[in-house]
Amino acid sequence: MIAVVNVTKSYRGKNGPIAALDGANFRVRVGDFIIILGRSGTGKSTLLGIMGGLLRPSSGEVFLDGKSIWTLDERTRARLRAEKHGFVFQNASVIPSLTVLENVLLPQAFLPRAHAANLSRAKSLVEQIGLGERLHAYPDQLSGGEKRRVAIASSLMNDPPFLLADEPTGDLDRETESEIMNLFLSLWRNGKTIVMVTHSHQLASDANRVFKMNDGRILELPGQNGTHKHIDCELDSPGEAPINVREVPRP
Ligand code: ADP
Ligand code: MG
């Protein structure tokens, strides 16, 4: 599980500090499919970066399976990140000078050699996303939806338990959006824990928990189908607190 505890983040702006996160408390349970909604500029990407170990918070803590990740040294944190998190970044998710196969293989470069997965895993991931015939194509030969699928396959390379996706369908048409969403739903059904930032209220109906960000704070929204319910986001001793892994209703 991931627990974000009293996290603040301020950036240096031209006219003084910009408070991007203002005491965010948030917990991800194993088996969740969480959707985070919120207007642009409310701190969604900042939160995802901090919980994924990419961006250092100004204060507060992030626990990953009980370990406080921002007190670890950079090397250990990088290793943990490579093993535990698959990232699907906003827009620029694939590297244009690498082929489909090379893009998918890339994350294993961040693992020690003994743990590195092999070429056949990358190939089978490319097949799973339906691009088996396009292994050696370059991103500029692919459609927007195909590129996004490559980015998702790449995030799966190290078989991480958590997928963190930042507006993965933001720039896609409706039809492609639902195709990408179906891919995430099938990954969820197959055991991935997913945190997705999106503007789409439509997509939120597929998640088991929905949160909304407002001015650097995050709140859980009550569930429509009883699939997710309002909880108090205040946490006392979240690092060590026992987590009940509940039965997650799957679509
Ligand atoms: P969202 O993803 O919800 O659009 P962000 O987390 O990207 O929000 O940004 C939150 C706030 O922090 C915004 O006001 C944004 O302008 C500001 N911000 C984000 N990144 C930086 C940065 N590197 N330097 C300065 N300000 C930033
Ligand atoms: Mg953003």
Topology of this structure?
Layout: E1 2-13, E2 16-28, E3 33-37, H1 44-51, E4 59-64, E5 67-68, H2 74-84, E6 85-88, H3 100-105, H4 119-128, H5 144-155, E7 162-166, H6 174-189, E8 193-197, H7 201-204, E9 209-214, E10 217-221
Parallel strand pairs: 3-8, 3-9, 6-7, 7-8
Antiparallel strand pairs: 1-2, 1-4, 4-5, 9-10
Helix pairs in contact: 5-6
Bound molecules: adenosine-5'-diphosphate (ADP) and magnesium ion.
Adenosine-5'-diphosphate binds at residues 11, 13, 18, 20, 38, 40-46.
Task: Walk me through the structure.
By secondary structure, the chain is α/β, with parallel strands linked by helices. Helix content is 27%, strand content 25%. It has helices spanning 44-51, 74-84, 100-105, 119-128, 144-155, 174-189, 201-204, and strands at 2-13, 16-28, 33-37, 59-64, 67-68, 85-88, 162-166, 193-197, 209-214, 217-221. Strand 4 (59-64) and strand 5 form a beta hairpin. The longest helix has 16 residues, at 174-189. The chain is globular. The model is unreliable at 228-251 (pLDDT under 50). Adenosine-5'-diphosphate binds next to strand 1, strand 2 and helix 1.
